[in-house]
Write a structure and sequence with these properties.
Layout lengths: L4 H4 L3 H12 L9 E5 L5 H9 L4 E6 L2 H5 L6 E4 L11 E7 L11 H7 L1 E12 L5 H10 L2 H4 L15 H10 L3 E13 L9 H6 L5 H6 L2 H18 L7 E14 L5
Parallel strand pairs: 1-2, 1-4, 2-3, 4-5
Antiparallel strand pairs: 5-7, 6-7
Helix pairs in contact: 6-11
Length: 261
């Protein structure tokens, strides 16, 4: 899937808040090697340098567009998360809003734990909103006769992810001490009204809607956006103070103690 860094950066404050909530629970003191898997442009990765100024920051992302726009303060590399393996043990691994795109990603976690240094940390956050109206309506619109043939095999989208207990179980069985939780944020989108009644449409245009738009020609794209946008406006009506968007996210922070067996 292609990504547009500028479109994704809309609502940057809302998208970045879970990252900061996640890494705030990582209690590493002086890590030397910090890796952010699915780092995008590395803007959030760079913020880790202010917390751990002595660390070497590495970012990995599968999008050439994101890597090309990467923050120069971070060593951002093009790569597939499912195939990633570090050359040497890592002190902190962070992955934020990326694993939901990787099939079978639970199988990766024990392997990553094995590549942590003693006293290392693995922190993950994944959206848990595939059943929300925004995604259900996207699938509903894509299944209409006008679009179903054009979008066959396109709308894979984020997979359903485990709950916090599911992640905690895998990481605990890998020998870690685990802190796992879930949060539903209520993002108040676009209080200034820049996007009118279509704030949620603008939000989705930066993520799950992208492969749909890329697969359609101009006429079909216009028709799809009109129908999907109308459904979103009904599901997420704008208020005088903005458009509220509930968004569930799942978190887990794992600590690999010294001498883990």
């Amino acid at each position: 899937m292609t990504w547009d860094p500028q479109v994704y950066a809309r609502f940057g404050e809302e998208r970045s808040r879970p990252f900061h909530d996640l890494v705030g629970r990582v209690r590493a003191a002086h890590p030397r090697e910090v890796v952010d898997l699915g780092c995008g442009t590395g803007v959030l990765t760079a913020s880790l340098g202010r917390r751990w100024p002595g660390a070497h920051l590495v970012g990995v992302d599968s999008s050439p567009e994101m890597v090309a726009a990467a923050d120069p303060a971070v060593d951002v590399r093009l790569g597939d998360l499912a195939a990633w393996t570090p050359d040497a043990p890592v002190d902190v691994i962070v992955t934020n809003a990326a694993l939901q795109w990787v099939p079978g990603h639970l199988e990766l976690l024990p392997r990553w734990v094995d590549r942590l240094a003693d006293d290392g940390w693995l922190a993950l956050q994944v959206p848990g909103n595939s059943a929300s109206a925004s995604h259900a309506l996207l699938r509903e619109t894509a299944a209409e006769p006008d679009f179903a043939g054009l979008l066959s095999g396109v709308l894979v989208g984020p997979r359903e992810v485990p709950d916090a207990i599911g992640y905690a179980s895998v990481l605990a069985e890998a020998g870690c001490e685990v802190d796992a939780w879930e949060t539903t944020y209520v993002h108040v989108l676009d209080p200034a009204g820049e996007h009118g009644d279509d704030a949620v449409l603008a939000w989705m245009s930066g993520t799950a809607l992208r492969p749909v738009l890329a697969a359609l020609d101009d006429d079909a794209r216009e028709a799809f956006v009109a129908r999907y946008g109308a459904r979103l406006r009904q599901a997420y009506p704008r208020r005088a103070w903005g458009t509220p968007l509930p968004f569930r996210r799942v978190f887990a922070v794992a600590h690999k103690p010294h001498g883990r067996t």
